[in-house]
């Protein structure tokens, strides 16, 4: 399938009613006149008014498309389904809580334009995080352990803002929570990844859907699985004779 657009912005959301309108308007402000794009929101079966808030934006945001899960399936599944539904050759992802700044997307696009063809992922790097102290420390420890095990040379894999090639992403092995390991998975596939400093903000409204304990418990199992995938991978370049 030939991509119909150069860029799709994919935003997975769960119970983010109050953050929908401000973020959609920021995306439009950042990208209109810069590049042809669409916005694909994936609602992970929210229980609040998230879908209604999205539908109310259709008139002012013709770029907006809405995909809804019938059952709650998690952020990785929502991201993947958004990418599958997207019509862009490249994908920019944002967390739906407003902590990622859409104004960073043009910067990522400029970085891509200046990079080699084999760079398929530009990962946001939150150099000045606006989270609680406990969350920052938990993330610092988790990043250190991940980096030691996977050797992915990525200082911050938990940042929601990323820019990657749609085709390369869809070739990656899929599993729940895979969105936290995209640099390692892209490198496993033979591609290069680059970390780019980005802005980070306090959550707009609502509450986080994660806590330090459930992140840690899931992360231990995931790290072992991704490490196994990397060890078992074989990359072979081919030539046509």
Question: Can you summarize this structure?
Answer:
The chain is built from eight helices and seven strands, in the order E-H-E-H-E-H-E-H-E-H-E-H-H-E-H. The chain is α/β, with parallel strands linked by helices.
SSE layout:
Blueprint: E1 5-13, H1 17-31, E2 37-43, H2 50-55, E3 64-68, H3 75-85, E4 88-93, H4 105-113, E5 119-126, H5 133-150, E6 162-165, H6 166-170, H7 182-188, E7 192-198, H8 212-232
Parallel strand pairs: 1-2, 1-4, 2-3, 5-7
Antiparallel strand pairs: 4-6, 5-6
Helix pairs in contact: 5-8
How would you characterize the overall build of this protein?
With 241 residues, the protein is α/β, with parallel strands linked by helices. The chain has a single domain, classed as Spore Coat Polysaccharide Biosynthesis Protein SpsA, Chain A, CATH 3.90.550. It is 38% helix and 19% strand. The protein is built from 8 helices and 7 strands. The protein has helices at residues 17-31, 50-55, 75-85, 105-113, 133-150, 166-170, 182-188, 212-232; strands at 5-13, 37-43, 64-68, 88-93, 119-126, 162-165, 192-198. The chain has a 7-stranded mixed β-sheet with strand order 3-2-1-4-6-5-7. Helix 1 (17-31) links the parallel strand 1 and strand 2 (37-43). Helix 5 packs parallel to helix 8. The longest helix is centred in the C-terminal third of the chain and has 21 residues, at 212-232. The protein is globular and about 50 Å long. The chain starts with a strand and ends in a 9-residue tail after the last helix. The mean pLDDT is 89. It comes from Cognatilysobacter lacus. InterPro entries: Glyco_trans_2-like, Glycosyltransferase_2, Nucleotide-diphossugar_trans. One of its GO terms (molecular function) is undecaprenyl-phosphate 4-deoxy-4-formamido-L-arabinose transferase activity.
